[in-house]
Amino acid sequence: MKTKKIVAESMPLALKMVRQQLGENAIIVNTRTIKKGGVFGLFSKQKYEVTAYAMEKKSPTAEPKFALELKEKPEKPLLNINKIENESEEQEETISGFHRNPQGLYNYYSKNPVGTEKPIPSTTPTKSQESEKKVSVSSKAMEEQNPLLDELQQMKKMMMTFMMNGKQDEGLPPNLNNWVTRLKKQGVDDEVVGDLVNRILLKNESKADLADDIIQTELSAMIIEIIQKKLPVSNIVNERTRMINIIGPTGVGKTTSIAKLATEQVLKQKRRVAMITTDVYRIAAVEQLKTYAGILNVPVEVVRTVDELGSALKKLEHYDLIYMDTTGRNYKEVEYRKSINQFLNHPLESDNYLVLSMTTKFEDMEILLDEFLESPIKKLILTKFDETSSYGSILNIAYKYPYQLAYITNGQSVPEDITNIDATLLAKYLLGREL
């Protein structure tokens, strides 16, 4: 890793020098204004100091001796490292939130663990034994290198976060600094803000003071891109889907969300719908679902165990679509998560939605999102959009997690107050534009 501290007459000039000396992928760690020159502190000039770092590229001459020997063997030529790096960069474009690995080889060796290849054939036994020994040593070194590369990637994220904390943003152009403040007030994570700012600075290096409308336009475009990558192609329920399972903590609006979704299927799609609830811990939840089921004239089954669920599914097998309202409990407890997974383990083809409230702190959302990463839950419903004025958690989720952002609910009215997520509209809310 190469680190440099550059001092220049202006911030744009400093950024230009960063790109010239460290390359296009340089990461800015710190910017600040300093005073230089003069006598006893008098007549000193204001200058701009930028600290940045970039990954060093290995010199071809530093290639290990064993690699040169292997190149001479026509039976199995060496892999094209440049090609691997290019492929890694193409793969990185599909990753959420502009994440970039610090080195192209990281992705390659993560997917192709070293030490698994067959020994390279050789016509001379003594040379073969020597080559195998060298390959073994190299493989061990590469295995030790992977954790280091992972650590460097984490360091990059930490530095982005560090740049946005405390007084590290004092050296930013004033207009850009105002937008940083706006995003932070909206609850956008420091890592996300740091990434957005870094991209804008590198792109607009030649401009001394960025125009406000330019910053707004570029931020909007990046936010829309991040969110759109996590939107489903369509929210239309597939004809093969027989069951929709709704999971989430207590009080986030699971039952009301089921009523809104089920009404759409009954009234507009003309499907025969049934409902199941496993939430027997709250009597009000059962009665609420029965009320909605009565209005829609659809059956509802109350189940307490996985065995009862099997019996209920058999009873409702002639219906086109079944909605299941699961128990709202403390999902930080392992036993409750295991219980939910047992209820989700049924033979019917299904869609699983995790429901989160927009009034919940993002730090608390992260706990649930992390816990359910390995579960069959792949889609989110974000509720109570109308009860908050902070929308940064949506951008944070889109940037950090693989879940699809399926729906937003913005009121208690059934079925009106549920909608697909609009990335452009969310960008406007986050940036405070007139709506």
Description:
Helix content is 46%, strand content 15%. The chain has 435 residues and is an alpha/beta fold. The strands form two sheets. An eight-stranded mixed β-sheet has the order 6-5-7-4-8-9-10-11, covered by helices on one side. Helix 10 links the parallel strand 5 and strand 6. The longest helix is centred in the first third of the chain and has 40 residues, at 125-164.
Please work out how many helical segments DSSP would assign. Answer: 15
Instruction: From the alpha carbons, calculate the radius of gyration and give it in angstroms.
Output: 28 Å
Strand segment count: 11
Weakly predicted, low-confidence segments: 62-125, 134-144, 161-169
**Terminal residue distance:** 45 Å
Class derived from helix and strand content = alpha/beta
Helical residue percent band: 40-55%
Give a short account of the largest sheet: 8 strands, mixed
Range of strand content: 15-25%
Element string (H = helix, E = strand): EHEEHHHHHHHEHEHEHEHEHEHEEH
Instruction: Using the alpha-carbon principal axes, give the shape.
Output: elongated
